[in-house]
Amino acid sequence: MISKPKAVCLLSGGLDSSTCLGVAARDGFETYALSFNYGQRHKIELEAAARVAAHFNAKEHRTAVIDLRAFGHSALTAEIDVPKGRSADQMEHGIPITYVPARNTIFLSYALAWAEVLEASDIFIGVNALDYSGYPDCRPEFIDAFTRMANLATAAGVEERTRIEIHAPLMHLNKAEIVKLGVEVGLDIGLTHSCYDPTPDGGPCGQCDSCLLRAKGFREAGMIDPVR
To answer: How confident is the model over 130-148, as pLDDT tens digits?
Structure first.
């Protein structure tokens, strides 16, 4: 039997990263899911990540513990109110306070380390440059730059034993297209969690940027979100 190529897949438990894991599984990779407990106020997403990793039969699912609260300056890691009820125009301009400084750079660095240990050449990340709320580390320029750095920074790259490729299959999809792709790759969307500021019982607030973008995606896809 021919073994599957290995891929490290960043998995938050949200719609985008869960769909991305499904794409990796569909495309024939043996998946290694990597999540982070980084001091985020919405830790319930880690429960969703565990459910999604099991759903897609990930070979392994690890949660790295780091504490980005040490730096703060984000509504996700500090005592700063999560913006609610913003219009589409407001979300399209500027970098919101829910941006966590250097988060994807840090996450991809951890994924790169694990990939090197696994002797894997592929990393999957569910970033998106259309409905992305202005995050600078979700742009194609960032992914391209990190890929170049990754192949300079590892022993495997320097010794030309492998070449790291970072896959961002959702990069140019809008949220409706991501919803449809999730269904196509077999994601049980009811397992996911997207809200930045969940209610005490773990439900979505319905008004943060993430909730509003998710609702927009389902509405434009003509589908009903099972997580409401």
So the answer is: 765 578 999 999 999 999 9
Token pair recorded at residue 188 = 């049980």
Identify the residue whose tokens are 């750095």: 149
CATH number of domain containing 30: 3.40.50.620
Is 226 inside a domain boundary?
Answer: no
List the domain range (segments joined by +) for residue 59. Answer: 6-221
- 170 φ/ψ sector (left φ>0, alpha ψ -120 to 50, else beta): alpha
Asked if the structure places residue 164 within a domain, the reply is yes
Number of domains comprising the chain: 1
Please tell me the pTM assigned to this model. 0.95
The answer to the question of residue 77 being in a domain is: yes
Pairing state between β 60-65 and 30-37 = parallel
Residue 1 lies in a domain: no
The predicted-structure confidence for 165-214, as pLDDT tens digits, reads as follows 999 999 999 999 999 999 999 999 999 999 999 999 899 999 999 999 99
Whose tokens are 């140019």? That residue is 172
- Contact between 170 and 127 (Cβ < 8 Å): yes
